[in-house]
Amino acid sequence: MNSEEIYKDGAYLKNNQTWHVEDSPWKAKQILKMLTKNNLKPRTICEVGCGVGEILAQLHQNMSGETIFYGYEISPQAFELTQSRKSDKVNFYLKDLLEEDIHYDIVMAIDVIEHIEDYFGFLRKLRNKGTFKIFHIPLDLSVQTVFRSTPILTGRKHVGHIHYFTKETALASLQDMGYEILDHFYTAGMVEQPGKPIQSKMLSPIRKLMYKLNKDWTVRILGGYSLMVLSK
């Protein structure tokens, strides 16, 4: 079966009934951090694979009224749920952005490429859709997850992750597809986001302590982090 089908036939919504709305304020905060850090003031922001649109809604609430937001989604179920979030500055489309002849100041793929069967092909086509690109990529590969294997298999079954990255392989994949990396930083989802599994809560104090000593080693050994990337 094509990996996209679970997003179109309702299977993904069945397994993830909130479509991760609860994570959206935290993700929007990380995006705002990247924008502020690099002094970016875009007039247009597009999100590919926007889900139910809550990240864009959160950004709209926290950014200048001059910015216009556009969300593209291939899931009919998710698109239906975007309708309560649309406004004159927040627009949603049940379309594949890669098939559109259009260009934005910033294009975002937030927790997207790990779901896509041909993510190299996706990255090649996405590159020309925006002046700047922002990616958020889960770093599912760590000593802990490889040793246990359960977190990777759980993510595959329930949230559709079919590719697994370290910081190095994520950045290399973008560079191989012609992206110029401008900035990147870790995001600590398993430490900072509420409602995580008990195992993650137990590891949080250790992650916090080790992260202060050595960020890279903490991420490689314990996992629980993602990578926010700004590129051209």
From TrEMBL:
Keyword Chaperone: no
Sections of the chain in a coiled coil: none
One matching Pfam family: Methyltransf_23
GO-annotated molecular function: methyltransferase activity
Superkingdom, taxonomy of origin: Bacteria
Keywords noted in UniProt: Methyltransferase, Transferase
Gene Ontology biological process terms in this record: methylation
CDD domains: AdoMet_MTases
UniProt cross-references to InterPro entries, sorted A to Z: SAM-dependent_MTases_sf
Protein name: Class I SAM-dependent methyltransferase
Organism: Paraflavisolibacter caeni
